[in-house]
TrEMBL record:
Pfam families for this protein: LolA_like (PF17131)
Residue span(s) of domain Uncharacterized protein TP-0789: 80-270
Signal sequence interval, chain numbering: 1-24
Keyword hit for Signal: yes
Name of the protein in question: Uncharacterized protein TP-0789 domain-containing protein
CDD domains from the UniProt entry: LolA_like (cd16329)
Organism: Halanaerobium praevalens (strain ATCC 33744 / DSM 2228 / GSL)
UniProt entry keywords in alphabetical sequence: Signal
Origin superkingdom: Bacteria
C-alpha cells in the first residue's frame, strides 16, 4: 500500500475520520508513529454536518455551515474523494469544493462559486491561499506522501490529558511544501494528532497551530473528534470546526452509500 499522510487535512476534512485502531506496541521512532497514524481505519465513506466559525482577534464571529462527504476510491493506494457544500450564510450558500487525491502527485481541487456561475480549478500557485476566508489553506487540505518527509521523535509527554508522541516532520524538498516543518502531538492510545504546530517557510518561526478541542469518542466503532481549532498566532484570527447537530443528534456517519456522481464536476456545478 502507498503510504500517505493526512495530518493537516484531518483538521478540516477529517474531523470525523480518526482511527478505530489502537496500537499496543511501543513506537520505535518518528517515522513509525506516522505510519501508525496512516494505518488508521477511516471507513469506506464518511458524512458530516459541520460548523465553521471564523473568529477575529477581537472575538467577532462569522459562523458558517457546511456538509462534507468523503469516500475511499482506491484502498490499495489510499486515495479519497471529498466534496464540501456550504449551506450558510446566504452569501456563500451553494459554494461547493471538490478534492480528488492522486497517487504520487498533487491532489486535484476545484471550487464552484455561485456568484461566478462556473467551476474554477485551484492551481498549484494558489495552494497557500485561504480556503473560504478560514485559517486553512488549499494546501492544508491536501494529502502528503510519507516518504516526502524526514521524521524525528522529539519526546513523549502529556498533552491535554493524553499521553502523546511529539514528532517533527521536515520536508525533503522544502520548495514543494508551504511549511518549514510541522511538529505533531500524536496520542498513544488512538494515534490521533491532537495538536499540530506549523512553522513559517521564510522566518522558520511558529505561526499556525491546530488543536483538538473535544473529547475523542467512538462512533460506529471509530474514534471520533468532534471539534478542532486552527489559529494564526500572528494575527490572532482562528477557525473553529465542529460537528453540528440536526434534530438533537450529531449528523455524523460512516460507511454509508454515497453516489459516485456526487464527486463529479457536474455535481460541483449543479448540486445534483
Amino acid at each position: 500500500m502507498k503510504n500517505k499522510i493526512k495530518i493537516i487535512s484531518i483538521c478540516l476534512i477529517a474531523l470525523f475520520i480518526v482511527s478505530s485502531l489502537t496500537m499496543a506496541a511501543a513506537a520505535v521512532d518518528g517515522r513509525e508513529v506516522m505510519e501508525k497514524v496512516d494505518e488508521r481505519d477511516t471507513g469506506e465513506s464518511r458524512h458530516a454536518l459541520m460548523g465553521m466559525d471564523l473568529i477575529d482577534a477581537s472575538g467577532d464571529v462569522r459562523p458558517r455551515v457546511l456538509e462534507v462527504w468523503s469516500q475511499k476510491v482506491d484502498f490499495e493506494r489510499d486515495l479519497d474523494n471529498t466534496i464540501m457544500v456550504f449551506h450558510e450564510p446566504s452569501s456563500i450558500k451553494n459554494t461547493r469544493f471538490l478534492q480528488k487525491e492522486n497517487d504520487g502527485e498533487d491532489d486535484d481541487q476545484w471550487i464552484y462559486l455561485p456568484d461566478l456561475g462556473r467551476v474554477r480549478r485551484i492551481s498549484g500557485g494558489q495552494g497557500g491561499d485561504s480556503f473560504m476566508g478560514s485559517d486553512f489553506t488549499y494546501d492544508d487540505m491536501k494529502s502528503r506522501e510519507i516518504d516526502d518527509f524526514e521524521y524525528e521523535l522529539l519526546k513523549e509527554e502529556e498533552y491535554n490529558g493524553h499521553q502523546t508522541y511529539v514528532v517533527e516532520a521536515l520536508p525533503k524538498d522544502p520548495a514543494e511544501e508551504q511549511y518549514a516543518k510541522t511538529i505533531s502531538w500524536i496520542t498513544k492510545e488512538h494515534y490521533i494528532p491532537v495538536k499540530v504546530e506549523m512553522y513559517d517557510k521564510d522566518s522558520k518561526e511558529l505561526y499556525k497551530e491546530m488543536r483538538v478541542e473535544s473529547e475523542i469518542k467512538k462512533v460506529d466503532g471509530i474514534w471520533t473528534v468532534f471539534a478542532t481549532v486552527m489559529e494564526d498566532l500572528d494575527s490572532g484570527h482562528k477557525t473553529n470546526l465542529y460537528v453540528k447537530q440536526r434534530n438533537n443528534n450529531y449528523l455524523l456517519e460512516y460507511n454509508m452509500d454515497v453516489n459516485d456522481r456526487r464527486f463529479t464536476q457536474q455535481f460541483l456545478k449543479t448540486g445534483r
